[in-house]
Design goal:
Elements (H helix, E strand, L loop, with lengths): L18 E4 L6 E2 L2 E2 L3 H8 L4 E6 L6 H11 L8 E3 H9 L8 E5 L2 H9 L3 E3 L8 E4 L7 H10 L11 E3 L5 E4 L2 E4 L1 H12 L4 E2 L6 H10 L4 E5 L2 H10 L4 E4 L6 H5 L9 E3 L12 E4 L2 E4 L2 E6 L2 E7 L3 H15 L21
Parallel strand pairs: 1-4, 1-13, 4-5, 6-7, 6-8, 8-9, 9-12, 13-14, 14-15
Antiparallel strand pairs: 2-3, 10-11, 16-17, 17-18, 18-19
Helix pairs in contact: 5-6
Length: about 350
């Protein structure tokens, strides 16, 4: 179990890392504003290593994302942003001829990458597009989704055109709360046409492979807030990961995480990147992380000691449950173990 198999000297998560790759929504910011401790922690992480960003959000260009980060106090160049539209273009170039007309459902970020890849952008199915590419933008509405459905009415195995989705995140963190993400919009088109999109961004590996190549990373660490995209994707790509509890997924999701979505590290916020990461010790069936201890007693998860830090209790509880290999619904879990004192938007 990678999450807690640390040596007794308790090295920090950043030790030995040459490139930090961070998700944006829910890790660095929620809406326009930076999350607490994110900017100073990432600037500190830049000392002795490179810093890049991987985002499934297709609504903005890499240049506009870089400008936003720079305004927040994280000096960033456009080339340090790896986006799901960029990954989508890598896929499209293998599916349709160069210079093809592409029906774009999305915002400026997706349009910009489509044009940079040498394709012609259209918003209408009447222009006989060679493919549909779909990404999130706040302005996407029924008319845009309907055009995609019209263009995709013929199944691909019957001669229909390809359909690429930048990502299928069901939700997106905003300053006012959690809002529907691109996955909900892709699902609406799927419901209309009965087809599945090919996904370019997280949790698929092309976007991670692009980041590793771009930053020439030997020992990267990926920071994310979602188990179903960030952590599964980094695990598939063979990249160590840290789940930070400042975005979408909460302690109850961590406890229920399947093997393929279990992170290497579990953090309250990004300050803990720089702190010694505690080794979990198992003795007589009791999992202990610093002062927090948890044991499994048949179907019951029992808290032996809460310790001084909620994150250590969650780490101990997660390891205890994960090590059994059993699904969470087979346990009775005390409410205290999935209490949520951590910051979220």
């Amino acid at each position: 179990m990678a999450l807690f198999s640390r040596r007794a000297d308790e090295r920090a998560p950043l030790d030995g890392v040459d490139v930090v790759l961070a998700d944006l929504d829910g890790v660095v910011y929620a809406g326009a504003g930076a999350l607490p401790h994110a900017v100073e922690s990432l600037n500190r992480a830049r000392d002795g290593r490179r810093l890049g960003y991987i985002t499934n959000n297709a609504s903005r260009t890499d240049a506009s994302v870089a400008a936003h980060l720079s305004e927040l106090g994280l000096p960033t160049a456009a080339g340090e942003i790896v986006t799901s539209p960029q990954a989508a273009m890598r896929l499209l170039t293998t599916m349709v001829p160069a210079g093809s007309t592409i029906l774009v459902v999305g915002g400026d970020g997706l349009v910009d990458e489509t044009e940079k890849a040498g394709f012609v952008v259209t918003r209408s199915a009447d222009d006989n597009p060679a493919a549909v590419v779909q990404g999130f933008a706040p302005e996407v509405g029924w008319l845009h989704l309907a055009e995609a459905a019209y263009a995709l009415k013929v199944p691909e195995d019957e001669g229909g055109i390809p359909w690429v989705a930048t990502n299928t995140d069901w939700t997106i963190p905003q300053a006012r709360g959690v809002a529907p993400g691109n996955g909900t919009l892709v699902s609406a088109v799927h419901t209309a046409v009965g087809r599945l999109a090919t996904v370019a961004g997280k949790p698929e590996t092309p976007i991670f492979e692009e980041a590793i190549a771009r930053f020439d990373a030997d020992s990267p660490l990926f920071l994310g807030d979602r188990l179903d995209t960030d952590i599964i994707g980094s695990n598939r790509a063979g990249i160590p990961s840290a789940l930070v509890l400042t975005g979408i997924d909460r302690p109850k999701h961590v406890l229920a995480a399947a093997k393929d979505s279990q992170p290497t590290y579990l953090l309250s916020d990004l300050r803990e990147l720089h702190e010694p990461y505690p080794e979990a010790r198992v003795r007589d069936g009791v999992v202990t992380v610093r002062g927090a201890s948890v044991r499994i007693d048949g179907a019951d998860v029992r808290i032996v000691s809460e310790g001084d830090r909620p994150i250590d209790l969650l780490r101990a509880g997660a390891k205890a449950i994960w090590d059994t290999g059993r699904a969470i619904y087979g346990f009775r879990v005390p409410e205290r173990l999935y209490a949520d004192p951590f910051h979220r938007p």
